[in-house]
Design brief:
single chain; 2 helices
Length: 43
């Protein structure tokens, strides 16, 4: 299961993007390291 890339399937969904803010993004970086393209989820 390609768990680090699942987000790409819903990246354009506004309902999905509403859950992301700077704090969540920073936690993600700490836990998973840098995931290429994930910054596109930030508004």
């Amino acid at each position: 299961m390609d768990v680090l890339n699942r987000w790409q399937k819903v990246a354009d969904d506004p309902k999905y993007k509403q859950f992301f803010n700077q704090e969540i993004f920073e936690y993600s970086e700490q836990i998973f390291s840098h995931i290429p393209g994930a910054e596109s989820l930030m508004n």
